[in-house]
Structure to design on (146 residues):
């Protein structure tokens, strides 16, 4: 994993993991690094909140739309990190779907919440960028922890 930048509580990671001469796709773009926050989010996951949030997606069209938009923004940000040469490599190796089309943490189904840690890191990145849109699932988790 190659860290592109470290910020308050999260790292921004390059979508290509380079280890020696080996290159692999790495779909988790925002990585939670604050230990206390990481443990608090893990507690939410242990309490079953991923399944509960996915049930909410099934019954709440507004929440589902925000989640889908968050996944799409995440995928677009990941793809934008690649230069032309890297995109050519990704295309040649068949990794386009993994890096351009998948959402938070590499999830293919945009109605799913794979990992609250990745959503929280994305919400922190949104806040750091003064984005008008904040990852809804990550923001929910941060409010729940506070």
């Amino acid at each position: 994993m190659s860290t592109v930048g470290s910020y308050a509580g999260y790292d921004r990671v390059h979508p290509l993991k380079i280890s020696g001469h080996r290159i692999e796709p790495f779909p988790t773009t925002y990585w939670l690094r604050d230990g206390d926050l990481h443990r608090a989010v893990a507690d939410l996951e242990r309490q079953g909140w991923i399944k509960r949030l996915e049930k909410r997606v099934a019954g709440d069209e507004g929440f589902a739309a925000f989640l889908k938009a968050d996944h799409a923004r995440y995928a677009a940000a990941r793809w934008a990190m690649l230069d032309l040469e890297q995109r050519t490599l990704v295309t040649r190796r068949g990794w386009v779907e993994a890096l351009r089309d998948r959402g938070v943490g590499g999830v293919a189904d945009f109605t799913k919440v794979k990992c609250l840690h990745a959503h929280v890191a994305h919400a922190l990145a949104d806040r750091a960028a003064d984005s008008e849109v904040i990852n809804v699932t990550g923001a929910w988790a941060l409010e729940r922890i506070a």
User: Anything to note?
Assistant: Strands lie at 3-7, 10-13, 16-19, 22-25, 30-32. Residues 61-80 form the longest helix (20 residues). The chain has a mean pLDDT of 93. The chain is about 55% helix and 15% strand.
